[in-house]
Amino acid sequence: VFLLDELLQVANGRFHVRQDTGGSAAILGDLEEHLLDGLTAALIVIHAGIRIQLINIPFYHYLDLGVWTWPITCLWLVGICNAVNLIDGLDGLATGVCLFAVLSIFATSIRWDEAEAALLCIALAGSLLGFLRYNFHPAQIFMGDTGALLLGFLLGVISIMKGSKSTSAVALLIPITALGVPILDTAVAILRRLHRRQRLFVADREHLHHRLLHIGLSHRQAVILIYMASLYLGILSFAMAFVPPSLNALIFGVLIGSGMTGGAALIFAERAAARRRSAQSESTPPARTNSGHL
After folding, report:
1. Are 241 and 112 in contact (CB under 8 A)?
2. Residue 268: what pLDDT?
3. In 3D, which of 70, 77, 75, 73 has the Cα closest to residue 9?
4. pTM of the full predicted structure?
5. Contacts of 99 (CB under 8 A, 6+ apart)
6. Bond before 138 cis per omega within 30 degrees
7. Contacts of 276 (CB under 8 A, 6+ apart)
């Protein structure tokens, strides 16, 4: 069933690529169809028994989802698929971010003796590492919708398999923290479009990597900076699995504080870049015009 689902994701990706090549599909329609394709794949996985049945609420207790099991699982799988697809905007970006996430999930799977999840993680990590050699800037091969949707779906399924067998109160937070960069970028994009009363599936150039380029970073600098953020989140998720439960609240506070600090730093850098561009435009002398005299 798992292999059948992955073949469905690849087939959907190839179908969209052919549509784009022909020029007959709009971006809006493509993204909406990605949601429908992800929902179809998610239903197959849920029917096979891979689903989120319990949510371990930190510092509280287990919450049985009951009838909400199917919609919550679909939301998670479809959300991760599209989060990875949306962050795949620069050479090597999605590959590296997902590599750090997979390695952190692998480490916590070893910690809790989750052999199936650990085996899938290490296999996926090896594939990503080999792919990254040719996908890093300047890229020789590209992931495309097919690879991004497949990668996001694999990460979503592995995190469910891992969390369903863990008795830790932070089992839910670990995959969310490890995948924090694409999840946060997608959440901010949704809130931004709701605030502007735009359709959720209208593409824009205001994702995290676009904003880093806009403040003056090079392609490599933007990718490496996001790598560092992903590594930092991976370390935090790794620490959640090993520290005593009494320290999880401290790590959670550090996570929230880091996100607020990073967001404030980005806004400050954007305003500084805007002032710099404004000053440069004002200091640029007007172009001379040819008077026509010999």
Report:
1. yes
2. 94
3. 77
4. 0.82
5. 125, 128, 129, 132
6. yes
7. none
